[in-house]
Specification:
Layout lengths: L1 E3 L8 E3 L10 H12 L11 E2 L5 E2 L35 E6 L4 H13 L4 E5 L10 H4 L10 E4 L4 H14 L9 E5 L1 H8 L6 H13 L3 E7 L1 H5 L4 H21 L4 H5 L2 E7 L3 H22 L8 E5 L12 H15 L3 E3 L12 H17 L13 H23 L3 H7 L1 H18 L40 H17 L4 E6 L3 H17 L3 E3 L7 H8 L3 E5 L2 H17 L4 E5 L10 E3 L5 H11 L5
Parallel strand pairs: 5-6, 5-12, 6-7, 7-8, 8-9, 9-10, 10-11, 11-12, 13-14, 13-15, 15-16, 16-17
Antiparallel strand pairs: 1-2, 3-4
Helix pairs in contact: 6-8, 8-10, 8-13, 10-11, 10-13, 11-12, 16-20
Length: 614
């Protein structure tokens, strides 16, 4: 509202920009929506969706939807950002990941990334990745006093730290200029490998680093193991906060103050293509950690946050769609206030990324920063009734997860007992059901697949050093396994497995369901044979050479012809008959495919029937 003076010098009046319009009410909106949905038999309640944390996402949020005050940017609880100015003027830290074992190739790629706009370097070292002794070679020509270096050394974090600190001394980098993170993460190692790694060595290292290098962090609270095991956002956050608390305990026992200990930690969280949940997760993480530090006696230290585009969401099939997923994740990370952002290259699920994919990943951030000016606004999501409400709901769900972990003895006890793994597995099962039924569609894989796509090939990436810990999953993996079966069949027989679309009635009557069936079949690597409108569909089936058929037509056509055509198709050699339509019982039909059906089960059974071996 703005006060304006009247034309004759009257007292200031309140200006209402919508004064000539009726004030809308939620009930008015619901009435209009229900009028539209009533045509298809639905109501406004059908527009409500539920997250894996049980949070109901409403179709409309307004000023009367409750959410606590978010505070101010740069002040506790830091929901609106860790700094008062946000990332205005500087942008967030554009961090690039390098996992290759060849020091010369890594060095060339690192220099290219820094020249192309990256502002920090993330190096995976140790078994299967860059050898620790080659660290100096990989960072040749890199001004480590200007470009922060973040290590991911696995079990060799002590040796990697010594190598990096030696490099700083060799290059005469002033202790006050060294920045980055040495990457110690004993809890993350336990989560990944199932083997215990005491925190005492990491705590002693942090005490030594904190004394001399004020800008260099020692520990990473890596939440990716919980995310990649299929966990929900609150499970990821709860485990991350519990890990952070475990590190606080270890560091303070090593002699550090709570404030100094907190400044030794960096939190690594997944950013997914669900932009609003990602925004809420990053904001909720800051609020949760602020509460921990408030009760620990260091309320003024904000959480240092590194967001990484979700490895679980990347696909091997139609990997070009990963460009869109990475862009959405980066957008959400930037809006959510992440201090550093890593957009994984679109081909990361296929092997070692090439120069082109790394360049595109960098440029994704450059476009959002330089052209879209995404960092030009402090907390752009602040004040959104939806985001503020979602942030609050997610924070409460994550706090419940965190306190549950603490009551059970802490994060390490939960990992050793397998209780946390069980909760993550239950979420993964729920997610798998929604993926199988395509309630959570995966574009290019479970929806709109392209069987003629040219394969994208990359050199194999080093195998992650896991085993015995939490599993790594990718959302598309079950469909991709079916496509692999199809590819192997194609290589052996020179053709893909096929299903004949037995179209009933005129073109307009069967096109929609034939298109639906074709899309579903292709998700399993099955080539649909569509004769279009034909006078004798059974003869066309016999001529096609297929052994499985799918009836496609209108409900009226099914009522008149489905049973007869199914029987005739079997007489002509069909070993399995499907039907694309509403769920129901149809004589002679083995399975009905429809929106919400278990597509994975249908496709697996069909490939089995066609003799397509795993």
């Amino acid at each position: 509202m703005t006060e304006v003076a009247g034309a004759r010098g009257d007292a200031p009046a309140e200006l209402s920009l919508a004064a000539e319009f009726d004030r809308p009410a939620r009930a008015d909106w619901e009435r209009l929506v229900n009028r539209v949905l009533d045509k298809s038999g639905g109501t406004v309640d059908d527009l409500v969706s539920t997250t894996y944390d049980g949070i109901a996402i409403q179709p409309l949020y307004a000023a009367d939807d409750p959410a606590p005050p978010a505070g101010f940017p740069g002040l506790p609880p830091f929901v609106r950002g860790a700094r008062p100015e946000g990332h205005v003027g500087t942008g967030w830290d554009v961090r690039v990941l390098h996992t290759g074992p060849d020091p010369a190739a890594t060095n060339a790629a690192v220099l290219a990334d820094l020249e192309g706009g990256a502002t920090s370097v993330w190096l995976r070292t140790g078994e299967g990745a860059l050898p620790v002794p080659a660290l100096a070679d990989a960072l040749g020509g890199v001004h480590v006093d200007l470009a922060p270096v973040v290590l991911e050394p696995g079990e060799d974090y002590e040796a990697a730290a010594e190598a990096f600190l030696g490099l700083l001394a060799e290059r005469d980098v002033p202790a006050g200029e060294a920045s980055g993170n040495l990457g110690a993460d004993p809890v993350g190692l336990l989560a990944r490998t199932g083997r215990a790694h005491g925190t005492d060595v990491a705590a002693a290292l942090a005490a030594r680093v904190a004394e001399r290098y004020p800008r260099l962090r020692t520990l990473v609270v890596d939440a990716l193991p919980f995310h990649e095991a299929g966990g929900s956002d609150s499970q990821e956050l709860g485990a991350a906060i519990a890990t952070g608390v475990a590190y606080l305990r270890a560091l303070t026992e090593a002699g550090l103050s709570v404030e100094t200990a907190a400044r030794q930690l960096e939190f690594r969280l997944a950013a997914s293509a669900d932009q609003f949940l990602t925004i809420a997760k990053l904001r909720a993480a800051r609020r949760l950690w602020a509460r921990v530090l408030e009760v620990s006696g260091a309320p003024g230290v904000p959480l240092c946050q590194h967001a990484v585009s979700s490895p679980a969401m990347y696909t091997r099939r139609d990997p070009w769609v990963n460009l869109l997923r990475g862009t959405l994740a980066c957008f959400a990370a930037g809006v959510g206030g992440a201090d550093a952002v890593t957009v994984l290259p679109f081909d990361v699920a296929l092997g070692l990324p090439d120069a082109f994919s790394r360049r595109i990943a960098r440029n994704t951030q450059a476009i959002l920063l330089e052209e879209s000016r995404l960092s030009g606004v402090i907390d752009p999501a602040g004040g959104s009734w939806y985001v503020e409400n979602l942030t609050d709901r997610l924070a409460h769900a994550a706090w419940a997860e965190f306190t549950g972990i603490e009551r059970a003895g802490g994060i390490e006890a939960q990992l050793r007992s397998g209780e946390l793994a069980g909760r993550l597995a239950a979420t993964w099962q729920a997610r798998s059901r929604r993926i199988a039924t395509r309630e959570d569609p995966i574009t290019g894989v479970s929806e709109f697949p392209d069987l003629d796509e040219k394969p994208v090939e990359r050199p194999p990436a080093p195998s992650p050093v896991d085993g015995g810990g939490l599993p790594r999953v990718r959302y598309a993996q079950a469909y991709e396994q079916l496509r692999d079966r199809s590819d192997a069949h194609l290589a052996r027989h020179g053709a893909r497995p096929t299903v004949f679309l037995a179209t009933l009635g005129p073109l307009a009557a069967h096109t929609g369901r034939a298109t639906f069936a074709a899309n579903l079949l292709q998700a399993g690597g099955i080539e649909p044979v569509n004769p279009g409108a034909t006078d004798d569909v059974v003869a066309a089936f016999a001529a096609s050479g297929a052994t499985v058929a799918c009836l496609c037509g209108s409900d009226a056509a099914y009522a008149e012809q489905a049973a007869d055509v199914a029987a005739r198709l079997r007489e002509a050699g069909a070993t399995r008959v499907l039907l694309a339509g509403k769920p129901g019982e149809y004589p002679g039909v083995d399975a009905v495919v429809h929106i919400g059906c278990d597509a994975l089960a249908v496709l697996t059974a069909t490939l089995d029937e066609l003799g397509v071996r795993p």
